[in-house]
Every structure is written in C-alpha cells, then in structure tokens.
Specification:
heterodimer, A: alpha+beta, four-stranded antiparallel beta sheet, 17% strand, B: seven-stranded mixed beta sheet, two-stranded antiparallel sheet, 13 strands, 14% strand, disordered N terminus
Chain lengths: 652, 443
C-alpha cells in the first residue's frame, strides 16, 4: 500500500474541530448562468460572454482564487439590464393601421374616395411604427386598363428596394396588393406609386392607376412575451402604488440575495424607483432600475456569509439561509429552490436530519446533473475532451460522433455511481460501462442497437473501470501518441492527491519524431537513470505504462510502432502488476484514493486545500465512507451534515 | 490611404444623437501634457506563446537593409518594412521561473519585467504592467482605459503551468501587484460590449438621463458593498475591495460621453482559433479607429499554448513542438506556425496603416506596437535575447525600419522605459531591472 490515513487520529472520532471558513465566494460562470435561469426563467446565458473563470487547485469555483475585475463588473451591469428587460418584456401586439393615400396634383387627383394617378407619380404615407419587425403593406387598387400591360403599382419603403405589382383589377372590383418590408421603430414612410402610365393619342386609350388606402400590419411573427415570467416578478399589477412596489422589490431581493432583505435595503431599492419617477419616467421604469440593481449587488454576486465577530476564531453555525445557499451551490451549482427556501424560512435546516433529507432530495433531482457537469467534469477531465484534436492523418476515424459518445459514456458512468448506489470502490475496476453503436465498435464490442447509450458488460474484454474509458485515454494523450507521463501524472494528481514536483528546467517535452530508438518505454528510461528525475518518474511512469495498451484515442492494442506493449510495473513500494487490470485493482485497494476523493469534494465546496484546517476530519469522513460501503451519495450527505459544512468562524 | 467613411452611424455605450462629428473632430484634442492639440498616441502589445526558432527569425545583418528570414517574411513588404523594426538581444531575466512553470513566469512578466511569486494558489504577486501605466495617460477621457483581448480563455480542467497560478499564464495586463486583468476571447462578445447601441435617435437629454440611471445603480452597489465591508474579516474585505474598486472605476467611465462610429459587421459565433485571431485583429482596428481606447493588449494563445495549427497543416501541439530537441522536422513545423503568427501581425499592421489620423499620417504612425513572446527558444526556455518586433512610429518618437542588436544584458524594461518616454509617460524605473531608455530606439 502506498499510504494509509495521514494522521494518527485515523479511526477515532476527533473532538471539537476547527471548521475553518470559506472566503467571500463569488458565483462562477456556470453558477451565474444557472442562477439567472432559475431566478428569472430566462434562456439567456450572459456568462458565456464573461472571461474564463479563474482556476486553482483543479477547480474553477475556489473562493480564494476567483477574482473580480472591472471588465467583469461591467459585464454584470450589462447583463443585469438585459436580463430584466428580457424578463419583463411585454407582448408586442400585431396591429393594423389604415391610411388614406393623397398624392401630388401634378400626377393625380382625388377621385371616388381614393386617389387616381393619371400619370407616373408617387404618394407618401407617414406610418408611426411602435415596434420594429416585419410588416405587411396592403394597397387596395384598381387600374383603368389600356395598352398591352396591366397598370403597375410600386410599393416602396424608403431606403429599400421597391416592390412592383401588376394591378389587373378593374373599377368594378378593386383588389388588395401586398408586400412585406422590415420597418424600424419610429416614423416610417411608405411610398405608393404608379410606374407605367400609357396614353395612345390616336385611340384615346389611357391607362391610369387608382389607389384607395394602405393598410400596414405587424410586426408579423414577433415572439409573444412570456406573461408568466413577467408576472412572477411583478407580483402585483398596481405598479404606481408604493405598497405594490415594496412588495415586488422585497420578494425579488429575497430570492436573488437568497435571504430576506432588511428594511433599509428595501428602502434603498425604492429610492431607485424614485430616481426614475423624478426623471419623469414611469414607475415600471423605476422598478426595472431597482431590479437591475438587485442583480448588480454584491449580495447577488457573492454568496455572503457573516460572522458575528469577524475577528474571532470561535466557530458558530451558519444561518439557515447561508446553509441553503452552500448546499444548493454544492449539489446543484445554482440557487436554492422553493422547497429549500421554505425549509430555511422555517428554520428547519439547523436540524442535521432535515439537512440530510434535503440533500438526498436534491441528489435525486435532475439538477444534480451539475455534479456530473462541474465536479466530475473537472475531476475526471471530461470537460477537456475536445480541447485538442488527435492527428487526423493517424486517427482518421476519430470524429465528433465518437467524441460525443466518449463524453456521454463517462458522464453516464459517473451518474450511475451517484444515482444507483454503486460503491465507489468499483469506480476504477467495474466490469460494465455504457456504449452506443459507435463506441461499441470502437471498443470492439457487439453493436447495441442505435445511438442511445446502453449498459453493457465488459466481462470478456481487457477494459475495466474509468481509467480505460475513451474520454480519459484521449485527454491524457498527445495528438499523435499516448503519453504515459501525462496519464501517470493525472493519477498522482487526481486519484492520489500526491502531485509531483515540477521538472527541472530544460527537460520538458519529448521528441515527437516517430523514428524511435526503441519503444516509448525505452525512450523514457532516461527518467529512471537520473536520480533527480527518478524521484517522481519512478512512481509516475509505471502507472502510465500500465495503461499503454490503450492508444491515443482509447483503442486497445498490443503493440505500438512495432514494439510489443509491456504494461507491467510497480505501484508504490513493492506491489507489482502485469497489466492494466491488475494495476487498477491495486489502485482501487488503496485508501489514499478515497481520501483524495474526499479532499477533491471539499475543494469543490469552494475551499482552498490549505483551508481544510483539520486533516483529522478528512480522515474521519474517509473512514466512514469506506466502512459504510463507498456510497457516493452517503459521502455527500456526510459532508454536508458535518460541522465543517454547517459552521464557520472568523479570522483574527 | 482612405479616410474613414460614415455609412451607418451607431452610438456607443449608450444613446446619442449628439453630434455627427467627422472623425477628426471627435478626436481632438487629447491633451496629454497641456498644450496644443496633439496626435493621438497609442500602444498595442501583441503576445505569441512558446518563443521562436531564432535561427530562422534573427536577420543576419543589422541596419536598414536587413534581409528577411523565413519567419519575418510577412513583414518584408514595401509598405511595412519602413514601419517595423527588429530588435535582438533584449533580455527579460525577471521572467525566469523558480523551477517549473517557465511559460507562466515568462508570461506574467511579459509586460511587467517583474519576477513573479511562484505559487499555484491565490497569493499571486506581480507588478503593474506597461499597458496599465500607459492607460490613464493615453486613454484619458475615452470610453475604455484599455482593452484586454485574446483567442483562448484557457483549459477548463487541471492546472496551467506547473507550480504557477493560471493567473500568470492567462494575463499579460496587470493593474497592480495582485490584480491580473482578464481578457475577452469571444469576438462576438467583444463586439457586443463595444457596439451594442441603444437608441440611435435618442436626444442628448436621453443620453444624460441614461447616464444618471447607470450612476444610480452603481451608487447603490457601492453603498451596499461599503456597508457589507464593515461586517467582514480582513480576507473577505480584500475580496470585496476587488468589487468596490471595479464598480468605482466603471462609474467614472459611465460619465464619459459616447462616441460616434461605424463598427463593421458583427462577428459570427463558434469561430476556429485562426478565425478568432483574425476577427480580434479587426476589432482592435475598429477600437482604435473609433477612438474607444488607445491601449490594447492581445494574447494569441496562453502561456505554453498547446494549440494545433491546422490552418498551416500542423497537427501537433505547439508547446510540444517547441520542445524541438533540435529535430529539423520540428523546426520546419514551428517555422510554419511562427510565420503564420507574424502574418497575423502583418495583417493588423497593414490595416492600421490604411486608416488616417490626419492627412498623410496613419493610425499606425501614431501607435507603438510591441510584438514578442514569453521565452526565446522554446526548448531551452531562455529569457534572454528575446524575439521582438516593434512597429509604428509612436507619433514620430520611435526609430523605424531597422534591425538593431543590443549588447548583452540589455533589459527589456529599458525598452519599456523608452516607450514610456516616447508616449509621454516618462518614468525613471520600470519592473525589477529597468535603468534607463535605449537611445537606439528613440527618434
């Protein structure tokens, strides 16, 4: 065994421990998008335009590491305005307006209740447009026909190409002629004209065009506002009434700030309504301003936790509201839902059993996919799939469909452990996985009948567990070849929490030249020859070699560039393995793997590792996890009901 | 050269009927040191990762008749030769690492010439960068003190460069010792930030009202944060101070009158790496053209970038190739990549040179462009004899059109001190090892 529990206190239940604290913790990009989705029901994802999250300790949600810059604040401000306008958007009614047509007396005259063009000319109609969009312009007309062609009507919107219509109708039966134009908000102009005057002096044949009115209809196809979303925020209709305004702002701030606002805070928001009213603007405009301010506030951007005495190391429980926030962002990467808020309001979350009940409820909720997206995606490097493509000449079969299948496989696999009570000591060695036809073919398995993932047995195959899945094998390879060092390093960093020291200067990299002087193992022998290198590489390289039967896109192979794969090695001090299956079994039997998972989860709650003040606590949680059957859900519940999670202290 | 034409006016950063000023009118006068109207001076830093194959970069001869090497080919045109200079022999020794993380250390010091603190955690420590010293001087009164742009946000897993925080690897602009400035890497998002207009028909009264509204919202935020701050411990206060500083700075900018401009087409989404680089160049041109800012930094990839370059037929990781182990095939592929990088620079310079600031004087003539990398040779990871191109005349203050070789040990910080003097922000010291200006650079 490589390592047993770090502290002598392993196996005992420690006394009072220091719960430490999480630094003022801002929402990261994924949390921002999820939060506005749940707060407002919006489809907008403003954080997609924010700069990349600051990363540290393997995750993008570590409170000490996440920073805030003027750029980000500016984008928050813009997003707040966009989000509130989107949420409060009112239905754009499609209207129809009718206008009489009056042209110039040089080319026509009023007749029969309309306008007759006796020669080529135009008439301009001014049309006020309330909302930009596509409009249908309909002109009722007939022609006094003469000559070979029918009378022709042109309909034009200034700045756009005119539309010409043949007016075959006659006085007895005028007809409607229409064209579609985009019109901007404001004062539009429609120009109606007669373009093919005809007069034969000899026969007296005279062609003229009569137009009656023009109807302007639109905007056509404008999306209706979601009245439900607007009404969810504007909870009362009398927007001019101060009591209604107060109610709206108090309820919105309570959800957005994840705790009831104080009276002075509500007054400060009402003051923004007054700013708009003072400018002669509407109460709704004022409310929009105040609602934007709620989303720009540090109480929205940060998950604020307070200490009664910020300079004291005395631990104290979080408030129910703070606890609800910690819990929902940990399990769902988003704000609490109504049920969790209700439990907080009723003060029930101080009861550990209730807390556990809520946690299990939340883990059974679809929103728990956030753990797969954000925790597993970063722990297992699944998010990196697609960051770098393999060489298309060497691996022509690697395409989007295969990559998607690989991503889906690992996600589904992790979810099985989360949702189906499969013990985590199977994670590295399980003899099942999830494949569709594409992935099955890639793995040399029989087809499964389509694009949907199906659980299959790996019983008579060389694959077992996560480390032999395509997503892992691909992201720990180079474009042209495997990298035993990358794979070994990943195992040290992410399974054992024993990150290797950086290499000495000048030795990074490896000739990409495929003209080998031996197998990849031979070429990396240099790592063992030099003692400076060997200290880390003698631990790291064998783990990567143990997986070298799987190429840079995860296919099984028994030779590489003409050399037979030798996947044997040692793990830790003495344990030998002859191939990948034995290696992963040795790893799965190593308690440090499970302690590391606990550390990773604690980092994912937002703590810097150096803030995990009590290693004894980590040992205890690990022991309970292992003794209790390695159930991931139980581990998560244990974490969120521990003193570490439900309490905090200040700092002197 | 052609003068910029107004075909469609859009109002920036809020509404604005205001004033259909011709471009030159709207530019004047930016008084740096009080005096008659001066040419608008600008600075642009262009960073490329993983160094250069110096044997294919450095011209043999110094002086004006330098023969173009393979990598510098794209600059060897009649239009650009007189306006660029190649500088050899400059060192950025503070960019060395303390074991591992050479790319991140070099990148962190790229515009600071400061030896950054080695940490993978949150206790980062650097210094203010050159562009941020220049920003308040050059961009005074403009919509943005500076713009930080790039092509890549960075990986969404793992750490960045062994032992060194991602903050060092992903930012060259630093507002202060602990404040890296993040960059935007989505061209469409940049366009929207700069050009999402509101109501082109709004009156001056409406513009002013909108500014008052924004100020009210930001005042409210400052009040809330100030009140919250009193309830926090020292680490949390330091975090909240990031928020307070940022909101206050935004509030100052809100008061800036909006500009009139023709922004061009909105970039598409989901662009490839090469297409993003090109789109960002176009945005940088428009940002200068519209006088939104006079200081821009751009990162064509992050520290030690592992990007592949299919646009020039290279499928290997850039970083891996740069550890060439002296193999000729690796040099060839690196040359393709580096030539492409210089080609992107040439595109940007050409565009800046075709826009007039004044009759006969282009935007490029009034700008100093600094192009370099975080290390010299990608395999040896040296921080000496760095590959440097400077372009533009800095409004007649910078020598152009030559290859200059500096004596051993000449610090990059002295080049930056020269820039500071040329651009009207003279100071005596810069970074860890800046001692004075370089006479060969100043006109």
């Amino acid at each position: 065994m490589l390592l047993v529990c770090a502290a002598a206190a392993c196996g005992g239940d420690g006394g009072t421990e220091d719960p430490g604290r999480i630094t003022l913790h801002r929402l990261n990009n994924a949390e921002y998008n999820n939060t506005v989705r749940d707060l407002l029901g919006t489809q907008l994802r403003p954080a997609d335009a924010f700069p990349a999250d600051d990363r540290g300790y393997g995750f993008d949600n570590v409170a000490d590491v996440l920073r805030l810059s003027p750029l980000l604040v500016e984008l928050y401000e813009t997003a707040a305005e966009e989000l509130i306008n989107d949420t409060l958007r009112t239905t754009t009614q499609t209207t129809a307006q009718m206008f009489e047509i009056v042209g110039s007396t040089q080319s026509g005259s009023a007749q029969n209740g309309g306008w007759l063009f006796f020669s080529n000319g135009t008439a301009t109609v001014n049309v006020p447009i309330a909302a930009a969009g596509q409009y249908r312009v309909i002109v009722r007309a007939y022609g006094q026909q003469a000559g070979p062609d029918p009378a022709r009507l042109s309909i034009e919107v200034s700045g756009q190409t005119p539309v010409v219509r043949d007016v075959t109708a006659v006085q007895a039966a005028p007809a409607d002629y229409e064209a579609m134009f985009p019109l901007a908000q404001g004062n539009g102009q429609i120009i109606v004209g007669f373009v093919n005057d005809f007069y034969d002096q000899a026969s007296g044949a005279d062609r003229n065009l009569w137009v009656d009115h023009v109807i302007v209809e639109g905007p056509i196809g404008a999306p209706p506002a979601d009245e439900g979303r607007r009404a969810a925020v504007l909870v009362c209709p009398e927007l001019d009434d101060r009591a209604c305004q107060t109610s709206i702002l108090r309820q919105f701030a309570k959800r957005a700030w994840r705790r009831p606002p104080t009276e002075p805070e509500v007054q400060a928001l009402l003051a923004l309504v007054d700013v708009a009213l003072g400018e002669g603007d509407t109460a709704e405009k004022g409310l929009r301003l105040a609602l934007q301010a709620v989303l720009v506030s540090p109480h929205f951007i940060y998950k604020v936790e307070l200490d009664p005495s910020p300079g004291s190391k005395e631990p104290h429980p979080l408030t129910d509201w703070e606890l609800a926030t910690r819990l929902s962002y940990f399990l769902w990467s988003t704000m609490p839902d109504a049920e969790l808020f209700a439990a907080a309001e009723a003060g029930r979350l101080q009861d550990r059993d209730e807390l556990a009940r809520q946690a299990r409820r939340m883990l059974a909720d679809p929103k728990a996919v956030a753990l797969t997206d954000n925790f597993a995606g970063q722990w297992l490097f699944t998010r990196a799939l697609g960051d770098q493509d393999p060489d298309y000449m060497l691996f022509p079969e690697y395409d989007d469909a295969l990559e998607q299948a690989m991503r889906a496989e690992t996600r589904r696999y992790f979810q099985a452990f989360l949702e189906e009570d499969i013990p985590m000591d199977q994670f590295l060695v399980a003899d099942f996985t999830y494949v569709n036809d594409r992935l099955a073919e890639h793995y040399g398995l029989p087809p499964v009948g389509g694009d949907e993932l199906v659980r299959v047995s790996l019983a008579n195959t060389p694959r077992r567990g996560f480390l032999m899945q395509g997503s892992f094998l691909r992201v720990t390879s180079r474009p042209k070849r495997t990298s035993p060092v990358l794979r070994g390093k990943w195992i040290l960093d992410n399974l054992l929490c024993l990150p290797p020291r950086p290499p000495p200067p000048g030795v990074e990299g490896f000739p990409d030249d495929m003209m080998a002087t031996g197998s990849i193992r031979d070429r990396l022998e240099q790592h063992k020859a030099d003692p400076v290198c060997a200290s880390c590489h003698s631990v790291m390289d064998p783990l990567g070699f143990g997986l070298d039967n799987f190429d840079a896109i995860g296919r099984y192979r028994t030779e590489d560039a003409g050399f037979a794969i030798d996947a044997s090695g040692t793990f830790g001090d003495a344990a030998r393995f002859t191939g990948p299956t034995e290696m992963v079994e040795l790893l799965a039997a190593e308690p440090q793997v499970y302690r590391c998972l606990v550390e990773k989860l604690y980092t994912y709650t937002g703590r810097s590792p150096y803030r995990i003040e009590s290693t004894e606590h980590i040992d205890e949680v690990t022991r309970r996890f292992m003794d209790g059957g390695f159930l991931l859900e139980d581990l998560l519940v244990d974490i969120v009901t521990s003193d570490f999670f439900v309490s905090r202290r200040g700092e002197p | 050269m052609s003068t910029m034409k107004f075909s469609r006016r859009l109002f920036l950063g809020g509404a604005g009927a205001a004033i259909a000023l011709p471009f030159l009118e709207s530019l004047r006068p930016r008084r740096a040191r009080g005096g008659a109207a001066e040419a608008p001076k600008r600075f642009l830093a262009y960073y490329v990762p993983c160094g250069m194959v110096m044997s294919r970069w450095t011209p043999a001869a110094t002086g004006a008749a330098w023969a173009a090497t393979p990598i510098l080919q794209p600059l060897d045109t009649a239009a650009l030769r007189p306006k660029v200079s190649i500088l050899s022999g400059l060192d950025n020794r503070p960019g060395r690492s303390d074991g591992g993380g050479d790319h991140a250390a070099g990148t962190g010091s790229f515009l600071t010439c400061t030896h950054v603190r080695k940490t993978a955690g949150s206790d980062i420590l650097n210094n203010i960068s050159l562009d941020q010293v220049l920003a308040p001087v050059l961009s005074a009164g403009l919509s943005y003190p500076s713009l930080e742009l790039g092509t890549d946000g960075g990986s969404s897993v793992g750490d960045c460069d062994t032992g060194y925080s991602c903050a060092y690897a992903r930012s060259i602009a630093w507002a202060g010792p602990t404040t890296p400035l993040p960059k935007q890497t989505n061209p469409r998002a940049v366009f929207d930030r700069l050009f999402a207009g509101y109501d082109a028909e709004a009156s001056a009264a409406e513009i002013a009202r909108r500014q008052r509204y924004r100020t009210s919202v930001l005042d409210h935020a400052i009040d809330q944060a100030s009140s919250l701050r009193t309830q926090l411990g020292r680490t949390d206060q330091a975090k909240l101070d990031e928020y307070l500083t940022s909101v206050r700075e935004l509030e100052v900018r809100v008061a800036t009158p909006p500009r009139v401009c023709t922004p061009g087409t909105r970039p598409a989404d989901g662009l490839s790496f090469a297409a993003r680089a090109r789109a960002m160049a176009d945005l940088m041109v428009v940002a200068f053209q519209c006088d939104l800012t006079r200081v821009i930094t751009f990162m064509l990839g992050n520290a030690g970038s592992g990007a592949t370059h299919p646009q020039v037929g290279v499928t290997e990781s850039h970083h891996e190739l740069s550890h060439h182990m002296m193999a000729a095939s690796n040099f060839d592929k690196l040359t393709l990549i580096e030539q492409w990088e210089v080609g992107e620079l040439a595109y940007l310079l050409d565009r800046l040179d075709t826009i007039e600031d004044a009759p006969g004087i282009s935007v490029l003539d009034n700008t100093i462009v600094f192009f370099s990398s975080e290390i010299e040779d990608g395999d040896a990871h040296r921080h000496t004899n760095l590959p440097v191109v400077i372009a533009g005349g800095g409004a007649g203050t910078i020598v152009q059109g030559t290859h200059t070789r500096f004596p051993n040990g000449t610090p990059m910080a002295n080049l930056f001190l020269s820039f500071l003097q040329a651009l009207g922000a003279r100071q005596a010291r810069f970074g860890d090892d800046g001692t004075g200006t370089l006479a060969q650079v100043l006109a």
